[in-house]
Each structure stands twice: as C-alpha cells, then as structure tokens.
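Long-time lurker, first post. I've been practising inverse folding by hand and with some scripts of my own, and I keep getting stuck on stretches where the structure tokens seem ambiguous. Below is the full token string for one chain I'm working on. Before anyone asks, I'm not after the true native sequence, just a reasonable design that respects the backbone. If someone could post their per-position residues I'd love to compare against what I wrote down in my notebook.
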C-alpha cells in the first residue's frame, strides 16, 4: 500500500476527530445546541445539550433579524444555537428560529418606513380577543367616527319613520275603495315593514363596526 495520498489524509482526519470528540476543551468559535428555558426578548437562559457547559447558561444575548423582537414561550421546546462573539467567552449569544420548533408569546416587527405583506389570494389576521392598530391609546376608530355617528343617526330616524309608516298604511288602505289606490297603499305598507326590519339589522351591524384601535399596554 502506498504512503500518502487521500488514504493517509482520511486516516489522519479520523485520528484528529477522535481526539476532538474525547476532548473536554470548549471551542469558543463553534456553535452548540440547546433549548431556551427563559427569555425576555433580549437575553435568554439556555439549557445546553452538551453536559460540559453545565445545566444552564444565562445572559445569552438573543440574536434575531433586524427589527424583530420575540418573547419566547419557554416551555414550548424552542431550540437554539449558542456561541461567543469573536470567540470571547464573556460575550455569549444564542440564535433562535432556525429549526421551526417551539412558539413565541409576543412578536414585534418594526420598520422605520414601511412593512409590506403580500398574499396571492388571502391574508388572514386572527386574534383571540383584541386587534391593536396605531400608537394612540384609545380614541381612534377603524372607521371615521364622525361618519359612523352620522350614519347611525340617519338610520335611527329612518327606522322610526318606517316603523310609523308600517302602522299607518294599513289604516289608510282600509279607508280606500277597491282599486289602484288601495293596492298601492297595501304595497306601501308591505314595503315599510320590510324597510323597518332591514334598517334594524343595518343599525345592529353598524354598531359592531365602531371598534377602536388602541395601543397595547
């Protein structure tokens, strides 16, 4: 068997890797796996996979995309990779959101000018209780409040008018002799009844549209 070549390099590599696996030294330029135990969005406490690091590593600065802040759910199995800035043992950090496990409790995405969300068919925004828009604390409505109030006033007046009309037209029809006028009066009464019902439904739907946009506290 010849000496040198690829075979010798592979043999040497195996020996070196064997020494590295058995070594207890920590390579401060490498990344190691772990799980997030706690995080405030800026720093995290990590449970390392490798027993050489002990049970926990605290004060790991969370690295994330520009403008993104996430409060991780610690008991949801959020995985991370941790390492050290420039190989400096005093500058520990961790990388999250690299393998799709776990979940977040709060997520903030900020941009100085604009954020675009594009969907080919449907974009869904779902919240269990509250959707907050804007940076004001209360007082700002999704619809223009003056327009909503004015429309509600008009609807209330129209509904009152048709409520009275639906009562009046049958009496008018009863006084008229058979013919076109009596038929028109009966038709007007039916239309007034339908409009009265429709306006009540419209007013109820309008009341649900006065959702305000508020800043979360």
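-- Answer (accepted) --
I ran through it position by position. Result:
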């Amino acid at each position: 068997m010849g000496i040198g070549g690829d075979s010798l390099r592979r043999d040497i590599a195996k020996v070196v890797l064997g020494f590295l696996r058995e070594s207890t030294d920590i390579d401060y330029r490498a990344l190691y796996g772990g799980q997030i135990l706690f995080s405030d969005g800026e720093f995290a406490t990590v449970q390392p996979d490798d027993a050489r690091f002990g049970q926990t590593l605290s004060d790991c600065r969370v690295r994330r995309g520009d403008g993104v802040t996430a409060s991780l759910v610690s008991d949801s199995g959020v995985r991370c990779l941790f390492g050290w800035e420039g190989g400096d043992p005093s500058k520990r950090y961790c990388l999250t959101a690299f393998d799709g496990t776990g979940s977040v409790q709060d997520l903030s995405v900020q941009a100085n000018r604009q954020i675009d969300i594009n969907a080919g068919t449907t974009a869904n925004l779902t919240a269990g209780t509250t959707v907050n828009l804007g940076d004001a604390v209360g007082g700002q409505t999704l619809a223009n409040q003056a327009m909503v109030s004015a429309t509600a006033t008009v609807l209330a007046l129209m509904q009152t008018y048709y409520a009275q009309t639906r009562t009046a037209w049958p009496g008018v029809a009863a006084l008229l002799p058979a013919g076109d006028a009596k038929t028109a009066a009966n038709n007007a009464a039916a239309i007034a009844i339908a409009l009265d019902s429709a306006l009540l439904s419209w007013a109820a739907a309008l009341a649900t549209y006065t959702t305000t946009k508020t800043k979360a506290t």
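A couple of notes from the structure itself: The beta strands are 32-39, 43-48, 57-63, 68-72, 79-84, 92-96, 104-109, 140-141, 212-213. The radius of gyration is 35 Å. Happy to go over any region you disagree with.
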